[in-house]
Amino acid sequence: MEKRKRTRIRRKNVGMKKLILILMLAFIIMTLLIKVIVPGAVTLSRYVYKKVRSYFLLSQEFYFNSDKLSIDGAHFEASNWSGVDDYVVSVNMNSKHNNIEVSPVDIDYTISATCAVYKSDGTLYPVNQDGSSPYIDYELSKPTGRILVSADNRDFFDITIKPKGLTLYNDDYVVVSITAESTSPYVQTLTGEFKIIIGNLGVSYMIEDKPYDSYLQLRITNTLDYYLVETAFGSHSVGEMLSINDYLALSDTDKANCYSMKAELINDPNQVVIDTTTSMYLVANNNGDTVTEVIPVNENGNTVNYNYVDSIKFKIDAEESRLIKYYKKTVTKDYTYPGSAVDTLITSVDTNSDGTDDQFTVKFYDKAGFLDRQDTSLTEEDFVFLTIKYKT
Predict the structure, then answer these.
(1) Residue 131: phi, psi to the nearest 5?
(2) Is the pLDDT of residue 39 over 70?
(3) Average pLDDT of the chain, as a whole number
(4) Distance (Å, rounded) from C-alpha 308 to C-alpha 298?
(5) Which of 112, 164, 223, 224 is 20 to 30 Å from 149 by CA-CA measure?
């Protein structure tokens, strides 16, 4: 009886594959007719072809997916890039249909990219004779990839946007187009477009992470090239602007009376916990610039209270980058920013009443968790896991 049952299942699967092949053949014939009769329907026919072919590949247990690329062409936009430091986009690839169904074979694929730089009005900046940009270069971490079954059906690659030193202005932007095409055992193409806008808030930020990594890394870059006097000293008055060279010539005592940028990081300890071994935390803690929160945790039916750091304050020097590590409570999450699973809420305030905003708040929230929420009364604020507050 068991043997007959297996035979029926195998015949059923074979029959389904034959049906899909017949449907694909019928579709190809219809597409050829449509192209002749209705030329304007070519775009629609291509879209439908992609979908039908995608269903066919699924029937062959071929899963070629990405968190930032798709067969229809994914689109992402990130603002507030300095245009000075390198910008890294990490692309995660996988060969999974879900947590249970995965491709039984390794998948090879090629990677390619293009990069263009635009002015704020949408016109393209001039390019070199070879088509490259005199403003921006880019670098792929590898030209090809392989999604290994033995590596949990996962792989990744990075593309690094590298400024060449020429000046870009606020609201100029870079468009990076990425293509990943599988070459074995089947051919499928995934694409994505990233629009990265030059910001004017004095800071750029990004979160580096991957699913199943135990921690994420927040990178903050202060793009300002000056310091402000906070406490008067010598001949310098409050609010006076100093160049980097003038600041470096000061004594350590006088430097303590100035700042380029003040920042505060606030994390939700229920989602991410700061690495207390980093130098930034140790300095902040020594200065009394940390805040702890008591979090009740259920352990074997008993409630135990733990002290978690949920806030640190520090200064960032002019044109300096800082890297801060946070451990994730849920390692399966991907907090990459910019990315499909995380978004930001940005507000600004004019604390000096001079008509210019000088205090900013950037809240990173779990967009994927927000969209999947069961309680519709919850807002984006309820899914914020990390906040940057900074004053320029």
Answers:
(1) 90, -10
(2) no
(3) 81
(4) 15
(5) 112
Mean of pLDDT values over 74-80: 75
Of the two residues 19 and 386, the one the predictor is more confident about is 386
In tens, the pLDDT along 2-22 reads: 444 444 434 444 555 555 556
Helix (H, G, I), strand (E, B) or coil at 110: strand
pLDDT tens-place string over residues 200-237:
556 778 898 888 889 999 988 887 878 999 999 999 99
- Which DSSP symbol is given to 383? G
Q: Give the residue extent of every domain in the chain.
A: 2-60, 66-198, 203-223+260-391, 225-257
pLDDT at 164 over 80: yes
CA dihedral 14, 18, 20, 23 (to 10 degrees): -160
* Token duo for residue 342: 């995380």
The residues, ordered by sequence, that sit 6+ positions from 32 with a Cβ below 8 Å of its Cβ are: none
Q: How confident is the model at residue 347 (pLDDT cuts 50, 70, 90)?
A: confident
Question: How far, in Å, CA of 387 to CA of 364, rounded?
Answer: 6
What is the per-residue DSSP string for 9-46?
HHHHHHHHHHHHHHHHHHHHHHHHHHHHH-GGGHHHHH
Output the six-digit token pair for 191.
């694409």
User: Strands 188-198, 74-81: parallel, antiparallel or unpaired by DSSP?
Assistant: parallel
> pTM of the prediction?
0.57
Q: List Cβ neighbours of 222 (8 Å cut-off, separation of 6 or more).
A: 202, 203, 260, 261, 316, 317, 318, 319, 320, 321
CATH of 66-198, one of 2.60.40.10, 3.30.1490.270, 1.10.3720.10, 3.40.50.1380: 2.60.40.10
Q: What's the confidence (pLDDT) of residue 44?
A: 45
Give the helix ranges, DSSP H, for the chain: 2-37, 42-59, 244-248, 252-255, 279-286, 367-371
pLDDT tens string 313-333: 888 888 788 889 999 999 999
For residue 92, give the amino acid letter.
N
Would you call 72 helix, strand, or coil by DSSP?
coil
Can you say how many angstroms the Cα of residue 368 is from the centroid of all Cα atoms in its chain? 13
Written as six digits, the tokens of 39 are 């030329």
Buried-state track 155-186, b at ≥16 Cβ within 10 A, e below 16: bbbebebebeeeebeeebbbebebbbebeeee
CA 96 to each of CA 63, 100, 275: distance values in angstroms, whole numbers, following the listed order: 6, 8, 32
